[in-house]
Amino acid sequence: MGGLNVSPQAKNRADWAGQGQLFVGVNYQPVDRSPGQIKLDIACMIKAGLQVVRMGDLSWDYYEPRNGEFTFEAFDSVMDQMQAAGIKVVLDIGGSIAPQWLHQEYPGATLAKEDGTALYPARRYMVDISNPDYRRLLHRFADIFTRRYGNHPAVIAIGYNNEMGNGYRSFSEPARQRFIGWLKVKYGDLPVLNKAWATQRWSRNITDWDQIRMPDGSSPNERYLDMRRFWSDAAINLLKDLESIRQNHAPSKPALSNLWPDGPRLGFDWLSSYRQYATHGAFGYYATNPLHGAFETMMMKGAMSAPVWFNEFQAGGDGFYGEKGRSRMLSYLGLLNGGQAVLAWTFNSHLGGEEQTIFGLLDHDDTPSWKLDEWSVISSEFQTMQKLGFPREMNPEIAISYSWESRQAADRVKSYYTTPYMDHKHNSYAPLYNDNIDVDVINIGHENLSRYKLLVIPGEYLMGKAATDAVRNYVRDGGTVVMTASSAKVTENNQWYNTPLPGNLSDVFGLKTHEFYNNPSPLTGAINGVEFKTSINFYEVLEASTAEVLARFSGTEGSPSVVTVNRFGKGKAIYVAAQTQPSVLQPLYRQLYQELGIKRGPVTPEGVYARVVNGRILYVNTNRKSVEIDIEGQKKGVLSGKRWSGKLQLESNGVEVLE
Asked: What is the CB-side half-sphere exposure of residue 448 using CA atoms within 13 A?
């Protein structure tokens, strides 16, 4: 496999997996394979230059086929063969799917529907993660599993409970009692709970804890959000327990898990908690839109300095075999976005089960596909890239807010919150990403904001005390914030503020806003001399007190303000009356770059992204057509070996490093 060549900036990063080496690998399920197939698979991996496999997820009963009966001999052999082959292992504790014997012996772990009937666990992730028997047996399994393999020489990192955020909520009576216990801890007594839930209306006052039911999708907003918080806390506490086991048995191995915290069925608040159980951001890359995939990468990275792992990587899709060159291009885009490892999903195509039409590197008859050849190319080229400053350590000067709780709240009021929550985020991110600027995605109530020159708060519907205090202190101490319409409308209890809006921040922004309209036609105007035209025509009417108007809508009755700025303490608070959209934000951002000393990255055509790393420029063309890029002087292409003068030509899905 060759010696360890690390990027100069990562040589002292012992806390990073592999100390800064790049990894190209694959997900592998030995439970699907015979001993003979495993030997052939490993030989195939070696030939392709794959350096790491992720194993262990989804197959608890492979190791514990019956309660308390552990059979590790088969996996011992696989681990030893990987070590002999020089292939590293991400060891995944596969606790997301409880074995059938656990459901049979401990029926309380089985999900219950809203009418109380049991839900047979036929599909993945169908277990009540709050059930104490499940938690106890998972702890036992994880403890034995990690003690046995955590310090195996092949192991490079440890992961927990694959895609736990894609699990399910249970409506069983024991789950209801646990929810009531959680509420008692949170609120203390019923008067406080009643106020938080606004039960004075419609004769909903709660006089006995036993009157509480597990909220469902039709429940009032306050109750629904607390229910989602209850399950979020259950997930986070489970992960903290698994992290304590890793700390006991394998403290030198970093934790990187494929958790899908924004899974729509369960989900949990990753960005407020990740430091308690993760040392790397890691996730499954399935994005078809490169910009959305980049945003998700930053969302999983948070404010960590460690690079991101793409624990599952798929440029095909369910029922789509893939597109030649797309995996290679997206792998380089991952490097550009601060990635360290790409692991294909999956090595062999599944013959049965839920993912038999997601095609692996081997076809269903075990024939290597062209995909394996492409991943071999990626592996070979990444050996070069890790000598050129990759994985790159990012130090963004701009952050965008993201709040799991706010997303849950906003999704419940679509008649008012008319632009979907993630559209606000993507629309605020797009102009910055297109200007080739690094951006963190953070929960602003849980991070140190002082490191950022600019904080963007796009459509953050729910902003509680922690978030509003953080914004107030950030601006007072010299920071610059941009907030867009639909932000700071409800408190942490998911109730509308009884203060001038934006809630608890009206003085910071020097205005209040309570009127809002959906214009029948696009709104127009100019910001910093650059004309804009809206594609989202919803806007708020801003009533400035101490704020100064920077720009107004034109052709609209009264020429209302579109952008205001207020001096507060040492900093500036900018409010955008329009809902979040690139046409309005791009000219504002570019004005702020100059004011704040933020440097744009290389200028590129639409769909081409670039970063300067150690004096070289990595270009990635995400377009499905060739693109010509202006460059300065004469450059050499590290990947192609070609020399370029004045222009760089990138083919469809093309990548190049110029020096």
From this structure: 5
Per the CB < 8 A criterion, the answer to whether 426 and 291 are in contact is yes
Contact 200, 240 (CB under 8 A): no
Pairing status of strand 616-621 against strand 608-613 = antiparallel
Which residue bears the tokens 């955020």? 165
- Convert the pLDDT of each residue in 19-76 to its tens digit: 889 999 999 999 999 999 999 999 999 999 999 999 999 899 999 999 999 999 999 9
pTM more than 0.70: yes
pLDDT for 12 equals 53
Q: How far is CA 241 from the centre of its chain?
A: 22
Average pLDDT of the chain to the nearest whole number: 96
Amino acid at residue number 137: L
Q: Quick one: how far is CA 310 from the chain centroid? A: 11
Copy the structure tokens of residue 513: 């806003």
Handedness of CA 175, 180, 181, 186 (dihedral sign): positive
Three-state SS for 166-220 is HCCCCCCHHHHHHHHHHHHHHHCCHHHHHHHCCCCHHHCCCCCHHHCCCCCCCCC
**Is 228:267 a contact under the CB 8 Å cutoff?**
yes
- Confidence (pLDDT) at 314: 92
% helix, strand, coil for the chain, step of 5? 35, 20, 45
d(CA 275, CA 257): 12
Average pLDDT over residues 434-445: 98
CB 216 within 8 A of CB 176: no
Other Cβ atoms less than 10 A from the Cβ of 573: the count is 31
Question: Of 524, 525, 519, 568, whose CA–CA distance to 550 is shortest?
Answer: 525
Q: Strands 398-401, 454-457: parallel, antiparallel or unpaired by DSSP?
A: parallel
- Which of these, 348, 342, 379, 374, lies nearest to 361 by C-alpha position? 348
Of the candidates 20, 44, 164, the one whose C-alpha atom is nearest the C-alpha of residue 92 is 164
Q: Is 288 exposed, middle or buried (0-12, 13-18, 19+ CB in 10 A)?
A: exposed
* CB burial of residue 338 (10 Å; 0-12, 13-18, 19+): buried
| The pLDDT of residue 8 | 43
* Alpha carbon 563 to its chain's center: 30
pLDDT in tens, 86-119: 999 999 999 999 999 999 999 999 999 999 999 9
* Contact call for residues 435 and 396 (beta carbons, < 8 A): no
Cα–Cα distances (Å) from 96 to 5, 92, 350, in that order, read 36, 11, 19
**Phi and psi of 641, rounded to 5°?**
80, 0
Q: How far apart are the first and last CA of the chain?
A: 27
pLDDT for residue 418 is more than 60: yes
C-alpha closest to that of 489 among 500, 476, 477: 500
Residues 6+ apart with CB under 8 A from 136: none
Q: Is 185 exposed, middle or buried (0-12, 13-18, 19+ CB in 10 A)?
A: exposed
pLDDT at 372: 98
Q: How far apart (Å, rounded) are the C-alpha atoms in residues 64 and 78?
A: 17
Q: Can you tell me the distance from the alpha carbon of 405 to that of 490, in angstroms, rounded to the nearest whole number?
A: 11
Distance separating alpha carbons of residues 295 and 287, to the nearest angstrom:
10
CB contact set of 415 (below 8 Å; sequence gap of 6+): none
Sheet harboring 608-613: ordered strands across?
Answer: 608-613, 616-621, 655-658
